[in-house]
Amino acid sequence: RKGSELIAAFREKRERAQGSAKVKYWKLEGAQVGAKEKEDHERTSRREAHERHTLLADTDAFKAATFSAHLRNNENSNRASALGEIQEKRRQLPIFSVRDNLMRLIRENAVVVIVGETGSGKTTQLAQYIYEETRGSPRGMIGCTQPRRVAAVSVAQRVADEMCVKLGRNVGYTIRFEDETSAETRIKFMTDGILLRETLTDPELDKYSYVIMDEAHERSLNTDILFGVLRDIVKRRMDLRVVVTSATLDAHKFSAFFGMCPIFHIPGRTHPVDTFFSRTLPHDYAEAAVRQVMQIHVQAPVPGDILVFMTGQEDIEAVCGTLAERMMLLESPPPMLILPIYSQLQADLQAKIFEPPPEGSRKVIVATNIAETSLTVDGIQYVIDSGYCKMKTYNAKVGMDMLLLCPISQASAQQRAGRAGRTGPGKCYRLYTELAYTEELHVGSVPEIQRTSLSHIVLLLKSLGISDLMSFSFMDSPPSENVAKSMLDLWTLSALDDEGRITDTGRMMVAFPLDPPLSAMLLSGAKLGCASEMLTIVAMLSVPTIFLRPRGAEQQSDAAREKFLVAESDHLTFLHVYERWRSMSRTSAAGVSTCDSAAWCRQHFINAKSMQRAAEVRRQLQDILAQLGLACASCGANWELVRRSVCEAYFWQAARRRNLVEYTSLRSNFPCCVHPGSALANSGYLPDYLVYHELIMTQKEYMSVCTQVDPAWLVEYGARFYSFRDSTRSLRPSDAGARSGVDLVAQDGAEASRYITSSSKLD
Ligand code: CDP
Ligand code: MG
């Protein structure tokens, strides 16, 4: 796959360079450096002298520590003049010049669509204008939705800064499992998913007097559903004002959807951007991007920052790391500040992209398509566009959503190029040919509702009382086979009955802000008497990476990790880590002492922030469980119950071992392997049957987060789909002899599928 070569080569190099890199890491941890390491260290000092020119603000503790001093100096001088500057900057934004007309339009119309280039001030200013208009006391809250978590947090912080208030007071944000709002909050940023969930408990959205649906052009699934929900609400609530914003010119579609509501254009202030296509299609887009960055850096004067569009954490890290290496090969180049940004990156590192680079250095931001419209960074003069993005797409072969590498659309390509022309004339380098652009790229992007699984949305709509899904007002209807498929999935989890109506189980599932199978796992845990354990596992599955594998300390971290592995299950491994972490915290006198907890995490290469988040998520889920009146019992050491619970919720995603290393999925018979990062793979224990949490596609299909199951459980929980092929054999799981001969067949689910869809008014 394109781009994978640089990633692979980078990984290998990283492994080879382990010796010297280890020294750096230990040095930072304050550990003793031995003689051998000292020698290595001296050998690398020339390298480091060069590295000082390369400010790689990466996730590594090493980089962060080395350069934080530098950034701190910067920060102090910034803060002094920041406030005055911020107000001045607000007045310079294009939206400021049209403020009065815009506010009048919003006052006079229930729904207004606002179109403006990225960076014109829609996200940061609109809510503030409304707030100021109502003299700081709007009747209800001003809600502003964002399709992305990172954006919701970052713009809330920015607006709080602009208003000189502490985040969480007047201005706050809510994203899943994280609520930074209070009784005082008047402006609330949130993900679109949060507002959609709020309609479950507050169907008229009475808390709000203004709803800004930001970034509508992204056409995220939740935004699309909100469109339909809000269209009904504004018909009933005359006092509600809805503002829809878009960075692209597709606004007429939004306007038409809301009964031809007015469209307001914020005059753009853009500079010309020269666009260059690649003459040939590069063999490896990540490598091509690195080369292009270096070429600009060497040839073009500083400043003039560079924005590189990659697809995800992997290629971003590879590009950042390789850039740092290439910098080392140069004789005293101008300093370069390398900044990755992707959704799983720690929030404090994400915020760094907005900081001005140190005097005389160049900022290189390597981003996912989050920087396409959601986040605007000033000072970008060069854009390098890989032409790819990762998109959540329903994969019919494996029967689930997957993040796939896809070519971007022409509209996206234009958006990306536009990022270079905000503050002055810019240049955009496309790492693909002009022919590829015209012939292979779609004109516009396919809305998420038409390409992903809809299970949680179907369940949500059903619980809102919309039983006939096809009568719901969609801006673009989802393909009916997608709806049918999602209903089938929900039916297998007993969330819908044979008639396609929501069941009591389904209603309980909706109460959790989780994907239906994860909710099913909690409910199963409650039933089997291991809810406490399932809460932990679900919480651990809902937070970013638990096990850290820092660059240069791969062996140590792998060794540390080994101690936690539970051979037969990744789910149990997570449980084990969490229980060890809790018991460690408990032994330190006063409850959870963050200091000890941090030290423990560092020692074991565990992500301390993720552990704390998991504890918080767990607490929230436990509250919901209590509200549902379900017991939160623990099964103690009886971990078989835990595996049963996992199996009950995930029997649909089961696989059988085919040979020494390979498995076949029971549901659709495709070959797959246990992910090398899995506890099962690491302990060399590959059971005959397992269930998996998700599939990751790289060169192969990998099942990640797996748990060994007894085939008899599959037949028990998945009775509608599985049966023993040879029914004369004993079904008793305790009968080991019989079990080894047992085989499963997946029954044809199509029949069930036909039944459930025909009775739900889909046709
Ligand atoms: O939403 P839209 O793309 O129209 O613009 P915006 O996100 O409101 O950004 C307006 C200005 O605020 C831009 O110049 C951004 O660079 C700046 N901004 C910032 O400096 N820091 C942030 N965290 C967010 C925005
Ligand atoms: Mg915006």
TrEMBL record:
Full-protein positions shown: 230 to 992 of 1002
Keywords of the record: ATP-binding, Helicase, Hydrolase, mRNA processing, mRNA splicing, Nucleotide-binding
One annotated GO molecular function: ATP binding
Domain (Helicase ATP-binding) ranges: 103-267
Family of this protein: Belongs to the DEAD box helicase family. DEAH subfamily. PRP16 sub-subfamily.
Keyword hit for ATP-binding: yes
Segments crossing the lipid bilayer: none
The Helicase C-terminal domain, residue ranges: 292-465
Signal peptide: none
Protein name: RNA helicase
Source organism per UniProt: Porphyridium purpureum
